[in-house]
Amino acid sequence: DQQVKQNSPSLSVQEGRISILNCDYTNSMFDYFLWYKKYPAEGPTFLISISSIKDKNEDGRFTVFLNKSAKHLSLHIVPSQPGDSAVYFCAAHADYKLSFGAGTTVTVRA
Amino acid sequence: NAGVTQTPKFQVLKTGQSMTLQCAQDMNHNSMYWYRQDPGMGLRLIYYSASEGTTDKGEVPNGYNVSRLNKREFSLRLESAAPSQTSVYFCASRRDSLNQPQHFGDGTRLSIL
């Protein structure tokens, strides 16, 4: 039973435009949400997070939005850059553990 | 600045062979984790250790054992490897403070023939 879902396996965006990645979850006990970025042959690296008591967190070009009533979060990347081409994983935390989505592959076109 | 170090990076095994994947972290983190990643799927938790001396099952523990050797090291053992265990294995650690992320190693790519 997948508790965290990323329904878009891939996203292609032009350099300079906005990338929007979406994530849905089912478990109301999740207290903390994270986005990780992963390049090939490397481990996931932490990108940005948001506590369940907030609805927005911003860090430079990256903003995460949380809609608890809809059990939905999104990651906005503005402006998108070629180095942003990677796989992005949404993750949710409860009881020491993370549950991950299947990932969205972002390709930034020049 | 090593962070989380996994060894080996690659390994090929025959069905039925045993293997231990090593993980060490130098960040003085209490919690450590083992995940596997398969194509088209997210990371799935195999086992975790909330503190030195404790281990608990995650989502997919069958066929694996773990040892929390000390605060730094957390190993994953396949006693009798099966082709279904072909995967990329990631180790992670986390500081036990509010809303802290897990930090990952670069993975071990394991193929079982």
Descriptive notes:
The complex is a heterodimer of chains A (110) and B (113). By secondary structure, chain A is an all-beta fold. Chain A has no helices and eleven strands. In chain A, the strands form two sheets. In chain A, strands 2, 4, 5, 9, 10 and 11 form a six-stranded mixed β-sheet that branches. In chain A, a hairpin with a 6-residue loop joins β4 (32-38) and β5 (45-51). The radius of gyration of chain A is 13 Å and the shape is globular. Chain B has strands at 4-7, 10-13, 19-25, 31-37, 43-49, 56-57, 64-68, 74-78, 87-94, 102-104, 108-112. In chain B, strands 2, 4, 5, 6, 9, 10 and 11 form a seven-stranded mixed β-sheet that branches. In chain B, a hairpin with a 5-residue loop joins β7 and β8 (74-78). The mean pLDDT of chain B is 94.
For the structure shown, list the relevant keywords.
A: 110 residues, 0% helix, B: mainly beta, 7-stranded mixed beta sheet, 50% strand, globular
In short:
The complex is a heterodimer of chains A (110) and B (113). Chain A has 110 residues and is an all-beta fold. Helices cover 0% and strands 57% of the residues of chain A.
Question: How is the topology of this model organized?
Answer:
The complex is a heterodimer of chains A (110) and B (113).
Chain A: E1 4-5, E2 10-14, E3 19-25, E4 32-38, E5 45-51, E6 56-59, E7 62-67, E8 72-77, E9 86-94, E10 97-100, E11 104-109
Parallel strand pairs in A: 2-11
Antiparallel strand pairs in A: 1-3, 3-8, 4-5, 4-9, 6-7, 7-8, 9-10, 9-11
Chain B: E1 4-7, E2 10-13, E3 19-25, E4 31-37, E5 43-49, E6 56-57, E7 64-68, E8 74-78, E9 87-94, E10 102-104, E11 108-112
Parallel strand pairs in B: 2-11
Antiparallel strand pairs in B: 1-3, 3-8, 4-5, 4-9, 5-6, 7-8, 9-10, 9-11
Q: State the low-pLDDT regions of chain B, or none.
A: none
Order of helices and strands of chain A: EEEEEEEEEEE
Large-scale geometry of chain B: globular
Number of strands of chain B: 11
Q: Which runs of chain A of at least 5 residues are low in confidence (pLDDT < 50)?
A: none
Please tell me the overall pLDDT of chain A. Answer: 96
Count helical runs of chain B: 0
Give the helix level of chain A as a range of percent. Answer: under 10%
- Say how many strands of chain A there are: 11
